[in-house]
Amino acid sequence: MKQETDRKVLELLNAEHTLSAREASERLGVSGASIRRSFKRLADLGEVRRVHGGIEEVNRGMDPAYPFFLRMHWFTHEKEALTKRTAELLSDCRSVFIDGGTTTAHLGMILRDPSLRIITNSLALNDILTRNLGTEKGPEVVLTGGSVNRKSAILVGPEAAETIGRFHADAAVISASAIDENGLYDNMEHAAFLQRRMIANADRVLIVADASKFGKQAPSHVVPLEKISLVVTNFTSANYHVVQRMKEKGVAFEFVHP
To answer: What are phi and psi of 60, to 5 degrees?
Structure first.
C-alpha cells in the first residue's frame, strides 16, 4: 500500500535526514520503482526535498506534524480497533470531549448515540460523523470555534479554549503525538493547551494511541501520567519496557488486538 510506504520512508528520513532511493529500497524491502514513486508523491506535497539520487528532510518549523490527510491512512487497522473499544468504554457517558487527531477522528465512524454530546475541536471528526450519519439522528456535536489549522484539521485559539471552559464532560478522549513514562505530548503547543483544558474539565481521561507513539517525546508536554485514567492501545513487544514503567507509576492499560 502506497500510504504505508510513504509512512516508512518518512520515518526513515526522520532518523537519517537524507535518504537515497537505493538505501530506502534496501532497508525497507520495497522495490526501487515504489520508492521513487513515494519520493515523488512526498516531494509534490512539500513534505521532503528532492536531491540528486534521493530526498532530504525539510524544515518543519513550529509545527512538525505531517498533514492530517497523510496520517489518517497510517495504522488504520489499529486505529479502527482502538476506537471501537474506546466507544464501548464511553457507553455510560452523556458528554465527552474529543480532541483533534487521526485516531480520534475514527470515532466518527462508530459513535451513534443521540443522547451523547460531543465537544470537539476536530473538524475531521465532525465531517466523518456527518458523512456517516447523513440525515439520521446521532450525537449532538458542539464545535469549539476558533482558527482553522488546516494541516491538522483542528480548531485552535482563544475561542476554542473559551468554549471548552464552558463545559464539563464525563470523559475526555485524547490522542497523542507521543507518550512515555513522563507523560503525554503533542507536536503543537496550541493543541496541547486545548487538551489540558479538556482534561481539566472531565471526570476521566482516556488516551487513545497506537503502539507507534510509545517511548517518544514531542515538543509540548500536555500532562503528567497521574492525570491519565486509562490508556487504550495495541501492545507490541518493543513497548514492553516503557509500558512497564508507566504501569509502575499507576497507569492503567486496555490492550486491543487489531
So the answer is: -90, 0
